[in-house]
TrEMBL record, chain B:
Keywords: 2Fe-2S, 4Fe-4S, Iron, Iron-sulfur, Metal-binding, Oxidoreductase
Domain 2Fe-2S ferredoxin-type, residue spans: 5-92
Gene Ontology molecular-function annotations: 2 iron, 2 sulfur cluster binding; 4 iron, 4 sulfur cluster binding; electron transfer activity; metal ion binding; oxidoreductase activity
Family: Belongs to the succinate dehydrogenase/fumarate reductase iron-sulfur protein family.
PANTHER family: SUCCINATE DEHYDROGENASE [UBIQUINONE] IRON-SULFUR SUBUNIT, MITOCHONDRIAL, SUCCINATE DEHYDROGENASE IRON-SULFUR PROTEIN
Biased composition annotated in UniProt, kind: Low complexity: 256-270
UniProt GO cellular component terms: plasma membrane
Protein name, UniProt field: Succinate dehydrogenase/fumarate reductase iron-sulfur subunit
Coiled coil: none
Cofactor(s) this protein requires: [3Fe-4S] cluster; [4Fe-4S] cluster; [2Fe-2S] cluster
Amino acid sequence: MTTTPARLRSASGAGPRAAISEKTLRTDRWWLQPLLVFLGLGAFVVYGLVRAIMNKYYWASAEHYLAPFYSPCLTKSCVEGSSHFLGQPIPQLPSWLSPAMIILVLPGGFRLTCYYYRKAYYRSFWLSPPACAVPDGHKTYSGETRFPLIFQNIHRYFFYAAILVGSVLTYDAVLAWHGKDGGVGMGLGTLILAVNAVLIWAYTLGCHSCRNIIGGRLKHFSKHPVRYRAWGLVSKLNAKHQQFAWASLFSVIIADAYVMAVSAEWITDFRFFN
Amino acid sequence: MGTKRHFRVWRGDDTGGSLEDFQVEVNEGEVVLDVIHRLQATQTPDLAVRWNCKAGKCGSCSMEINGKPRLGCMTRMSTFNETETVTVTPLRTFPVIRDLVTNVNFNYQKARELPAFAPPAGVAPGEYRMQQVDVERSQEFRKCIECFLCQNVCHVIRDHEENKHAFSGPRFFIRAAELDMHPLDARDDRKELAQAEQGLGYCNITKCCTEVCPEHIKITDNAIIPMKERVVDRRYDPVTWLGRKIFRRDQLDEQPVSASPKPAAAAADSGSNWHQEGPVPQEAPVGADGKLVVAELTLDRAAAGSPFGDDQVFPLPPEQLRYQHPSPPTGDGH
Ligand code: SF4
Ligand code: SF4
Ligand code: FES
Ligand code: FES
């Protein structure tokens, strides 16, 4: 007679697991990717902090280049010419606060709550988990179910804000076509700012929240052909979201550093014409 | 002619075990499961392993190979160096039964806890109509072969056994997404269920499930994140809320084509006992020494045991069934 042994009676999942003493048996270099991400994001944060505290060299007045970290420049403490159509609605700041700190909250929050960056820093900074099938570095785990991580759900507000930031960066890129002696001109900075704006848009529009809002939330694609098409386009960008996240991260640093160098007169802008 | 390779295979059961070393022949074109079978044939006749199709389609042969959750039948030996040791262990996240075989009942339990497709009211079976674009989206999720590699790799339960109670796992997030995106499904509380009952919030979208899925289902991008966003739609986003109020889009977005405001399914569903214990797995009949009998001649029965266990009565008593067919539509026009 077939019997049901006691140890299988606890079958609904409570029995002991296989006793394997090694924490992970992975033999590949699983630590390499989290390490690179750690260094990459760490470098970006350090650069961002230094730049935000610097509080100068963000406006190259002859070329009309505005550094992306200081755009839009909204306070009365902004250097002359660096504020544009949005004006200066915020009063003079105390000296330890720079205009960058005010505005960086938006793109910073956007990237901090981005689904891709969440994956990246949960793995490489929080080790939760550092890599697949490698044990996570924490005793207990509640994921994004409670404070503070439940606030990751506000990502879509940052997405709405990122649309505005993207528009401003586009405006800056257009402004950079200003010639040195008036009229239209183009320098290397113009090109860099334009490429940066394109990459920022590719990153922003590929956002998972955007994909949901545009069409992902629908139950019947067939009833909304236009939104379905738009969803298809956003999905294409979305599939490359990770790549655009890194590309736009680098491009924003390059653009900012370039404008800083031009504005500080460490280098002179290479002009294609005028 | 093949070469000799070094294998380490975990042997043991729920009382303990260890990695055992083997030198075993490997021929060109073989996969890890072939080598496990050669071990059975030549060195360890009682090595337990679960498999069926050898074609990556049944999802039985899930194991961990060099620490990575994989299908044994889809892992080619040519991906390893000739001198490389290949370590094969059972899935870590589930209780071990013996050697490479684990008890994956956790997954069946979670499957039962997920409410089934709810038929729209007033549409008889056979009258369901869907547009191709609507079908396509959930088609991806239907590729799932239930290998449970994603469930096994997910750190939420792999590293935190205590979360098993609250967390259903990626395989059932794709099921929830599939149903929530289904144009004919009449339930409109699947987002809330995913959050409250399935523990969607435990997932921190680190994408290991997507990395191991042998069917290459984009679990995180196409199911989990969209479900998280749908929960946000419902619970946190004033802009879409306002949009829905102004343009009266709520009906458009949320309700199935043919739905009446009250899902017929809710009623049918309440008759099913989703939390009922399943039949308990049974061991093969063993002799007095606790081992499998060698030949049928010495077995106390005329033929092999029933795969359902010999103490199972057929037909199953109806009150033990979990499935209840929805009652015929009573809607208008019929
Ligand atoms: S993405 Fe979420 S469900 Fe998938 S393995 Fe990671 S935590 Fe688990
Ligand atoms: S989703 Fe993929 S990994 Fe998970 S059970 Fe299905 S086929 Fe396996
Ligand atoms: S920006 Fe990455 S998901 Fe929204
Ligand atoms: S034996 Fe069927 S998937 Fe490997």
